[in-house]
Input
Amino acid sequence: MVALVPRAARPAKSRPVKEKKQTPKKALQAAKEKGASRRMMMAGLVMLALLVVTGGAATILVVMHKTTSPTTGTTPSAAVTQQQDAAQWVVAHVSHGVPVACDKAMCAALATNEFPQNELRTLGRASSPPLTSAVVVETAAVRELFGTSLSSLYAPAVLAVFGSGETQINIRVVAPDGAAVYERELAQDRTSRRAAEVALLGANEITVSPIAQVQLLDGDVDSRLLSALTSLAASLPIDIVDFENIGPGAGSDMPLRDADLATTDSAAHTSSAKYVQALEAQLSTGPGAHPASMILGELPTGQVLRVEFPAPSPLLQLAP
Output
């Protein structure tokens, strides 16, 4: 059983902030006056000792070349942790059947986390914009290559964000025909989804929470998820708790790719276990799109079956 946390209740991950050390001029001058022999001795050490004047007494501040812990060993930097978080998210939530563009270090991290190597496209100095990829992992190294052109021209939509500042990592959807075309198609897709989702609300024996109803009326739900639920509702009574897009910092216009379904429904006239089995069987083999994963878990409101589809969401898949 997995404890599922609604998006609004998920705390943002805190990142360690490196503090800048300031050395007073008097301390620097004192260090310089130690002479050439002192400098030669210090050059052979693996740490840098700076004299800092504190309260009239000379205190040694030792800055280690490696950050270590006496109990846990080497502690990875915030940037490395950020890279791992991003890599694990891509592996878990991006389709393994689409090309992903990344810098050398990120591609290595993705491969280590078992993203298919044949779908990785390494970006370097001689690389053109990654228009043949479906997703690009925008790290500081990638921004150095393309500047702001990814966000403005080639990959305007954000699936997930990790960290902030210069080391921020953005998982972006590539727009092969340019940002303007992508934005237009995304708007057209929302219109088609809204019409189909309003039709779903009129299906027999379907229960929808207030928040899920608003999401459907706004056309927020991914077309594949909508197709799966429409097929499911034709065979079984369903109770939709909510829809969610589980990418941290995802753009508000990104389709919602997963749904939480209640694991009990009085209209099903069967036990919860048998009802869940019926839901899973229909979603796995029935008409419509088949989800990438189905996870049984707990929300504060009760037990749910979370149905997930991978990123990126296809556009213009529904008839107008």
